[in-house]
Amino acid sequence: MDLRQLEVFINLAESLNYSKTAENLHLSQPALSRIIQRIESEAGITLFYRNHREVQLTKNGKLFYDDSKSLINSY
Predict the structure, then answer these.
(1) Which helix (H) or strand (E) holds 35?
(2) What is the pTM of this model?
(3) Whole-angstrom Cα distance, residue 43 to residue 53?
(4) Which domains are delineated in the chain?
């Protein structure tokens, strides 16, 4: 996992919207989805609840967000 992936995760965690995040970061939605899936796979946890209407952070996602935000801020 690299800093760019963490930035993508943080942006999605804050917007809770794949379309807005993809647009903000100049990514396609499929590329964004692959990045998030890769992070979840590496971390071994589910970060988001997803359905056709909304995206929400899981409990583990909230913890991962706090840790990621601290890491990015200290970097």
Answers:
(1) helix 29-43
(2) 0.92
(3) 25
(4) 3-74 (1.10.10.10)
Q: Are 64 and 47 in contact (CB under 8 A)?
A: yes
Which backbone phi and psi does 2 adopt, to 5 degrees?
A: -120, 175
Which residue shows structure tokens 């965690």? 13
Q: How far apart are CA 15 and CA 60, in angstroms?
A: 17
The residue whose two tokens read 């963490």 is 6
The CA R_g of the chain, rounded to the nearest whole Å, is: 11
The per-residue pLDDT for range 32-71, each reduced to its tens digit, is 999 999 999 999 999 999 988 899 999 999 999 999 999 9
